[in-house]
Design a protein that fits this description.
The chain has 151 residues and is mainly alpha-helical. 75% of the residues lie in helices and 0% in strands. Helix 2 (33-50) crosses helix 3 (57-99) and helix 3 runs antiparallel to helix 4. The chain is flat and about 70 Å long. The mean pLDDT is 88. One of its GO terms (molecular function) is ATPase-coupled transmembrane transporter activity.
């Protein structure tokens, strides 16, 4: 999941010929409409039992997917924090070059700047991927609850 390597076999087939339905990857269990529906429905039932008069779909969604959303928020905070670190490292590196100092500090700053960019890029792709998964799960769950369809 970290490097999206699981898509390579399908990409290889796509290079040689046009993909058809049988070539597509199997949908993970947590992304299937029935499991999304069941998870939100069970949270909705608990919500309806506890707050019968003022049941809230938002509360039911937070019970079902709150921790996932919180982990995504933490990933976004780390990613944005790295976005602030890069200009600070670049500023230090420029000041170091202007001073003309020798030593290992320049190498450390340059490597840190490169690693920060690589890590930020990696975290950004993970955040986008996981957010898209959560949006798909939420959309599938809500549509299942509203229309009572989960096939």
């Amino acid at each position: 999941m970290l490097t999206f390597k699981f898509v390579n076999p399908m990409m290889d087939i796509g290079i040689t010929r046009q993909l058809d339905f049988t070539d597509l990857l199997e949908l993970p269990a947590e992304l299937r409409a029935a499991s999304c529906y069941d998870k939100l429905l069970s949270s909705w039932n608990v919500e309806h039992q506890h707050h019968h008069a003022d049941s809230s779909l938002l509360r039911a969604m937070s019970y079902a997917y709150g921790w996932t959303y919180l982990r995504l928020g933490l990933l976004k905070v780390i990613n944005d924090s790295l976005g602030f670190v890069s200009p600070l490292l670049l500023n230090k590196f420029i000041k170091f070059l202007q001073k003309g100092s020798s030593g290992m500090d320049g190498y450390i700053l340059a490597i840190s700047l490169g690693l920060t960019s690589i890590i930020k890029s990696f975290l950004d792709s993970q955040y986008s991927f996981r957010l898209s998964k959560l949006k798909l799960i939420l959309r599938s769950s809500i549509m299942g609850i509203v229309y009572r369809k989960y096939i």
